């Protein structure tokens, strides 16, 4: 009898030890898996943010600066001192980073940095940058024959007691004009003096595709770690109740992955939509339009792109305030959403400019749609604190087919047509032609 009791005690002890071993192993696996998912999801978000920032700067350069240059102006590093000029792309990227940080509830933020920047806020001011920048420099090439396959540098570290994902991606000298501009700066007297004071050898020059700067992207992990901690506690609870800890682990990991996936989807939605109108933003619109254009290159399909520029919008903003202007933008967005087909693309490109892409619609059909939108918007009446607000719109159309050079070119053509429509006394809808 005592032998049986002893065997039972041994069995209970083995079961208890097994329980703790399985539980400890399960907790370790959950934590390790959680950390892996946090890092991978943060890396994907950082890639999206970096791509967005570089794309925004390219669009700014290709659209805004190019338009000003064609009008006899352009960009200047001291634009506030030169009437008719706007900041250079690097300054625009810095301002965009600050605005993004303010408008994303601290979900992420980014800023341009460089070893060669003379502004303290964009220098290698942290341990992370001093650690990561040399690793980017090690990937540089003395005489690159084309774009370098830069690999980003990242790690998770603590800042003010909070875990953050730090990510550094190269922002190389992509164009010859960019190289010429920065090489010229290095020859100016104030830059030479600054380099001497900093103990940096003079005469630095770059070649196209070499490392010129980088984007530092920081993603606070407190929110996602909070979700992860909840899931870990849930897994531990299931392990305590059910002896089969592996089953609880699988359930916890599955639930954690689902939550992380939803968080990533939310971030992806915010990165692709205009927060004011919930329409596609410029980046997402151009990406979707580019996919359609690539399908069109080897076919006879034809699509119509509408570029809408609101009239009297500045008057509304100046007279009634920006809240009234926001109400107008939302009303226009609602009209465009109601008029669209399921597969039409509607976007707010920025400011008071909208775009509508009508797949598989000829210019003639697009003209009919544009006139219907025109009537709808012009008939809009908005009651604003006892005042009735009205708004107008100028619409330009451009055709997208296999002969189109690019989506950006089609947008420029439609924009040009809308400009003609805005100046016209006869019609507010104009289709682009070579004669414009």
How would the blueprint of this fold be written?
Elements: H1 2-70, E1 74-75, E2 85-86, H2 89-103, E3 109-113, H3 127-137, E4 153-159, E5 162-171, H4 176-185, H5 189-198, E6 213-220, H6 222-241, H7 245-272, H8 282-296, E7 303-311, H9 313-320, H10 322-339, E8 345-350, E9 353-358, H11 363-378, E10 382-384, E11 387-389, E12 392-400, H12 407-423, E13 429-431
Helix pairs in contact: 1-2, 1-6, 1-7, 6-7, 9-10
Could you explain how this protein is built, in words?
This protein is an alpha+beta fold and 436 residues long. It contains 12 helices and 13 strands. The protein has helices at 2-70, 89-103, 127-137, 176-185, 189-198, 222-241, 245-272, 282-296, 313-320, 322-339, 363-378, 407-423; strands spanning 74-75, 85-86, 109-113, 153-159, 162-171, 213-220, 303-311, 345-350, 353-358, 382-384, 387-389, 392-400, 429-431. β10 and β11 form a beta hairpin.
Distance between termini? Answer: 105 Å
Tally of DSSP β-strands: 13
Strand content: 15-25%
Round the mean pLDDT to the nearest integer and report it.
84
Summarize the structure.
By secondary structure, this protein is α+β, with helices and mostly antiparallel strands.
């Amino acid at each position: 009898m005592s032998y049986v009791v002893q065997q039972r005690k041994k069995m209970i002890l083995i079961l208890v030890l097994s329980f703790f071993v399985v539980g400890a192993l399960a907790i370790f696996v959950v934590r390790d898996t959680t950390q892996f998912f946090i890092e991978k999801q943060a890396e994907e978000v950082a890639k999206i943010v970096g791509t967005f920032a570089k794309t925004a700067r390219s669009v700014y350069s290709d659209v805004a600066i190019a338009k000003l240059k064609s009008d006899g102006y352009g960009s200047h590093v001291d634009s506030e001192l030169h009437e008719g000029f706007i900041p250079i792309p690097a300054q625009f990227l810095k301002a965009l980073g600050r605005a993004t940080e303010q408008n994303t509830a601290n979900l992420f933020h980014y800023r341009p940095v460089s070893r060669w920047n003379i502004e303290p806020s964009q220098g290698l001011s942290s341990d992370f940058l001093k650690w990561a920048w040399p690793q980017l420099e090690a990937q540089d090439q003395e005489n690159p024959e084309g774009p370098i396959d830069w690999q980003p540098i990242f790690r998770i570290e603590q800042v003010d007691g909070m875990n953050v994902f730090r990510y550094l991606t190269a922002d190389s000298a992509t164009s010859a004009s960019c190289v010429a501009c920065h090489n010229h700066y290095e020859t100016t007297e104030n830059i030479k003096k600054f380099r001497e004071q900093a103990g940096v050898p003079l005469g630095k020059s770059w070649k196209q595709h070499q490392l010129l700067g980088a984007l530092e992207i920081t993603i606070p992990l407190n929110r996602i770690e909070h979700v992860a901690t909840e899931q870990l506690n849930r897994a531990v609870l299931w392990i305590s109740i059910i002896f089969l800890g592996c089953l609880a682990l699988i359930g916890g990991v599955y639930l954690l992955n689902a939550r992380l996936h939803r968080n990533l989807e939310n971030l992806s939605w915010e990165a692709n939509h205009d927060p004011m109108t919930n329409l596609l933003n410029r980046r997402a619109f151009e990406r979707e339009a580019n996919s359609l254009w690539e399908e069109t290159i080897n076919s006879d399909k034809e699509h119509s792109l509408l570029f809408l520029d609101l009239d009297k919008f500045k008057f509304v903003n100046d007279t009634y305030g920006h809240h009234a202007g926001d109400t107008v933008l939302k009303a226009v967005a609602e009209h465009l959403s109601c008029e669209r087909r399921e597969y039409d693309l509607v976007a707010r490109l920025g400011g008071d400019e909208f775009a509508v892409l009508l797949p598989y619609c000829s210019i003639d059909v697009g003209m009919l749609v544009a006139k219907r939108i025109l009537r709808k918007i012009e008939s809009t009446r908005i009651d604003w604190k006892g005042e009735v607000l009205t708004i107008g719109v100028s619409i330009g159309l451009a055709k997208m087919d296999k002969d189109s050079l690019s989506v950006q070119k089609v947008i420029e053509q439609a924009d040009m047509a809308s400009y003609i429509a805005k100046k016209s006394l006869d019609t507010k809808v104009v289709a682009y032609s070579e004669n414009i």
